[in-house]
Design goal:
Blueprint lengths: L3 E5 L3 H13 L3 E5 L2 H11 L3 E5 L7 H11 L4 E6 L4 H10 L3 E4 L4 H13 L1
Parallel strand pairs: 1-2, 1-3, 3-4, 4-5
Helix pairs in contact: 2-3
Length: 120
């Protein structure tokens, strides 16, 4: 059985690239482009890991994390953000993310973090 990943990313090219990369590695990837649709998909599919962009068109990643944690306190979230700064990373950690990954993404590092999240 493959590992299910929910990718919540609003930048289409990046989302396609991440989805294609993870699919080649054997992950079952569901992609949504905003927080609302991502939360709906989470409830529907209950993925093993959520890859979450910080800036989304309808809400920020911290709001999404709060709602995900209300649905499943043990959800593993890897937050991705192009917003530089320790403040965002710190707030993400306080909100309960598994880890924080700065953009531009290094796909090898993303894979390492996904493997760790799945094993945890």
């Amino acid at each position: 059985m493959s590992t299910a990943v929910l990718l919540i990313e609003d930048e289409p090219k990046l989302a396609r690239n991440i989805q294609a990369y993870l699919a080649r590695l054997g992950y079952d990837v569901h992609q949504r482009s905003n927080g609302t649709d991502g939360l709906d998909e989470f409830e529907r599919s209950r993925p093993d890991v959520v890859l979450l962009d910080f800036r989304l068109p309808d809400m920020n990643g911290l709001e999404v994390i709060d709602r995900l944690k209300a649905l499943d306190a043990g959800v593993k979230v890897i937050m991705m953000s192009g917003v530089a700064g320790k403040q965002v990373a710190s707030e993400a950690k306080e909100a309960g993310v598994f880890c924080y990954l700065a953009k531009p993404l290094a796909l090898k590092r993303l894979r390492e973090l996904l493997d760790k999240a799945v094993a945890a």
